[in-house]
Amino acid sequence: MIRSTSSQTQAAQRASLKDLFARWWFMTPAALLLLVTLAYPIGYTVYISFAEINLGTFRPQGWVGWNNYLNVLEDDRFRTAIVVTAKYLVFALPLQLVLGFAIAILINVEWAGRGMIRAAFLIPLAIAPVIAGGVWRMLLDPLWGIANYAIGMVGVSPIDWLGDPFWAMVTVIFIDTWRWTPFVVLIASAALLSLPRELYEAAELDGASRWAMLWHITLPLLMPVIAATFVVRWLGAVKMFDIALASTNGGPGRATSVINMYIYEEAFRGLRFAESSAASMIILFVTMLLTAVFLRTARYFEVRH
Question: Which one is the CATH code of 71-304: 1.20.1440.230, 2.160.10.10, 2.40.50.1020, 1.10.3720.10?
């Protein structure tokens, strides 16, 4: 009996090891692809962030240690870009999540024309961000843009959407929200369709109002999805570059110069590739740190619900 149990245990261990080997074997092509496309560029960027670049050969020469990082941290333009990016993230992400889930809840209810509205929300996702930024730049032009013409019809004075620092930031947040809210709507709509209908039927039998069902059933069940959506949009928002470049070009001054515009200008306009690599590594580290915090928060909501 003891031998039988021991042999069964050994067989189970062999089967477990074989299963583990099979999983890693199937993951090998993807791991190699990631190694080539991600690990090498990141490793090379780390290497040149600690070196001096020879502009004659565009190759690293000489080891300078942390000097590039210190130069970046002491650069006022870098600190300004961090502040601008933080403002954008603080306002754009919550706005996109609130609008996305609110719109998803509204179009989840049966009413005439719902299908057409759903299809219309896909249009911003189909437009390239650079094109979207350029089109909105024309629409918001202070002299001949249709936006000032429209608000002028109701007696509002023209607004310098692109020339005033405050309104330029509002413009970037608005365009990015217009561009990415449909993405949140799609995720929220899929999550709403997966909610158990039995809970709503039981709540209706108990006389609960739609508002009560929203607060006590829908939102608690959606919290894990909301947390996960926030993490996904956070990772995308940190990389925001094209909309700011096409709509405001980082101006006026540096009012809308997000961190990726600073890295772009350092590398391709200032030819300071080592400093731009150091800035990239700083942002990568901060992004990974905050993403880890957000993932733990999302996991907390998944456990609770």
Answer: 1.10.3720.10
Spatial neighbors of 140 by CB under 8 A, at least 6 apart, are 147, 148, 161, 162, 171, 247
Cα Rg, the chain, nearest whole Å: 26
How far is it, in rounded angstroms, from Cα 221 to Cα 304? Answer: 10
- Pairwise CA distance, residues 178 & 83, whole Å: 22
Q: Which residue is associated with the tokens 């089109």?
A: 135
User: Domain locations in the chain?
Assistant: 2-49, 71-304
**Residue burial 219-254, b: 16+ Cβ < 10 Å; e: rest:** eebbebbbbbbbbebeeebbebbbbbbbbbebeeeb
**79 pLDDT higher than 90:** yes
Which segment of 40-49, 153-162, 242-251, 293-302 scores lowest on mean pLDDT?
Answer: 293-302
Taking only the tens place, the pLDDT of each residue in 28-75 is 888 888 888 888 888 889 999 999 988 877 788 888 889 999 999 999
- CA distances 269 to 29, 41, 73, 264, 266, Å, are 37, 21, 19, 7, 6
Chain-centroid distance, C-alpha 73: 24
CA angle in degrees (0–180, nearest 5) for 248-148-122: 65
Q: What is the pTM of this model?
A: 0.84
**Predicted pLDDT of residue 85:** 94
